[in-house]
Amino acid sequence: MEKFFAFFQPLHELFYGDNWFIAWGIVAGILLIAGCFQLPSFIKSLKAAKARNSKKA
Fold first, then answer.
1. 3-class DSSP state for residue 7?
2. Which of 5, 20, 29, 56 is the most exposed place for a label (fewest CB within 10 A)?
3. Rounded Cα–Cα distance for residues 52 and 15 (Å)
């Protein structure tokens, strides 16, 4: 069990250590970039759903 915790200790120090904002900033940046790529298809699906709903009413 000690080897298991020893494996995750560097990750814990990276994300919760003195420079935690760097690691979390990289993660947030990756998520924002991925969200930007998904945003056009999300908007297109919202417009299509709105068009379907307006035809029903």
1. helix
2. 56
3. 45
